[in-house]
Amino acid sequence: MATPIVWRNFLSEDDITWGILRGRMGYRKGDLIVKGDGSTPVIVSPDAQQIEWARYEAVEIQMLAEGGREIKIRIGNDEFKQPIPSAGEYHDYRFSVDIGGVRGSRPLAIMPTDSLTDAVAIRSIQLVPRKTNFPGTAGKLYFGKSDEYRNVLYAHAPSSLNFDVAVPQNGRLHFGIGVGSLVLLVNIILLTLYLLSCHSLRHLIGGKLDCFSCTVTNRGRHGAWKKASFLNERHMLYAWCSLITVGFADFYVRMVASGMIKDFRIL
């Protein structure tokens, strides 16, 4: 997630980092003053500040225009514009930018008014980062101190899978086992072993105990901890095997569903 970029408080020439492409530019009472000089004024973002537009969702500008009908911004080949509601008053303008497929930095050019002679007072310019949405989780996200990664066991998986199956007329459903059933079963077993052998689970079972023999509960946890340690020694093996089976299971199901191959029945 990116941090907001804000330009404001234009109190001296040193505070003006934006460049002027057309017109004249200065400052007054903390505002950036831009005015056309026989043509519409255009300013451009600082060269030294790289802007990765894939990380930002909007441009917000607060300004007062003494005249003109519209404000326009340009990012590469993409152009956005809005009408100026009324002259002589500060207004907030928000441009939702969707720069699809653009990677790397692009300068931001602003034409604050289409008037050739009227001045514009820009109070602030802000780039708003895109929001990062995390889906809901199933399981436990946090145990103990937040700075101990070993205390974190994070399970993110759907609780159920639903499939719509069209049953032909006069058809019937019955129990059966095919190659696909075995592929998915092996996949589930290896994913389960990968989970049970993880470092976090081993630590939660008994790794954080200072004494295994002090209580009956701790002695029981010691036994479980030894079993988890046995699996933990093979954690990387289970990781690679489960990764391969997940990819193969996805490929196999897709091929069967598309009719490219047939799922051979065993039972």
Condensed summary:
This protein has helices at 179-196, 199-207, 216-232, 235-258, and strands spanning 5-8, 19-22, 24-28, 31-35, 42-44, 56-65, 70-75, 78-83, 90-96, 108-111, 119-129. With 267 residues, the protein is an alpha+beta fold.
Q: pLDDT below 50 for ≥5 consecutive residues: which ranges? A: 137-149
Strand content: 15-25%
User: In total, how many domains does the architecture comprise?
Assistant: 2
Identify the CATH homologous superfamily of the largest domain: Galactose-binding lectin
Oligomer: single chain
Rough outline: elongated
Q: Which structural class best describes the helix and strand composition?
A: alpha+beta
Radius of gyration over all CA atoms, rounded: 31 Å
Gross CATH architecture of the largest domain = Sandwich
Entry keywords:
single chain, 267 residues, five-stranded antiparallel β-sheet, Jelly Rolls
Q: How would you describe this structure to a colleague?
A:
By secondary structure, the chain is of the alpha+beta class. It has 2 domains: 5-129, Sandwich (Jelly Rolls), CATH 2.60.120; 169-258, no CATH class. Helix content is 25%, strand content 24%. The protein is built from 4 helices and 11 strands. The strands form 2 sheets. Strands 1, 3, 4, 6, 9 and 11 form a 6-stranded antiparallel beta sheet that branches. The longest helix is centred in the C-terminal third of the chain and has 24 residues, at 235-258. It is elongated, with a radius of gyration of 31 Å.
Please give the structural blueprint:
Layout: E1 5-8, E2 19-22, E3 24-28, E4 31-35, E5 42-44, E6 56-65, E7 70-75, E8 78-83, E9 90-96, E10 108-111, E11 119-129, H1 179-196, H2 199-207, H3 216-232, H4 235-258
Antiparallel strand pairs: 1-11, 2-5, 3-4, 4-11, 5-10, 6-9, 6-11, 7-8, 7-10
Helix pairs in contact: 1-4, 2-3
